[in-house]
Design goal:
about 80 residues; two-stranded antiparallel sheet; 2 strands; alpha+beta; 3 helices
């Protein structure tokens, strides 16, 4: 579902980037591929994380793992 207007917010947040998107009317899910300069990767990660659980990074695998590491570090800090 388009929880918290996530699709529109996502498109606005990443408006300056080249992207391809496919919206599934039945499920309300939107798959988006974005292209970005590798030197901006940390910024992209931070911006993606700002969406919380309404955005899931599917690929590439190494980028997904970087997101997971950030989330894991935050969880560990909260447990301390």
């Amino acid at each position: 579902l388009n929880e918290r207007n996530a699709v529109n917010r996502f498109m606005l947040e990443f408006a300056e980037l080249e992207k391809e998107s496919v919206f599934d009317e039945d499920s309300g899910e939107c798959m988006v591929s974005i292209k970005y300069d590798e030197q901006n990767e940390n910024e992209i990660i931070i911006r993606l994380l700002s969406f919380g659980p309404v955005v899931e990074v599917l690929s590439p695998y190494d980028f997904r793992m970087k997101i997971k590491e950030r989330v894991d570090r935050q969880l560990a800090l909260m447990k301390e």
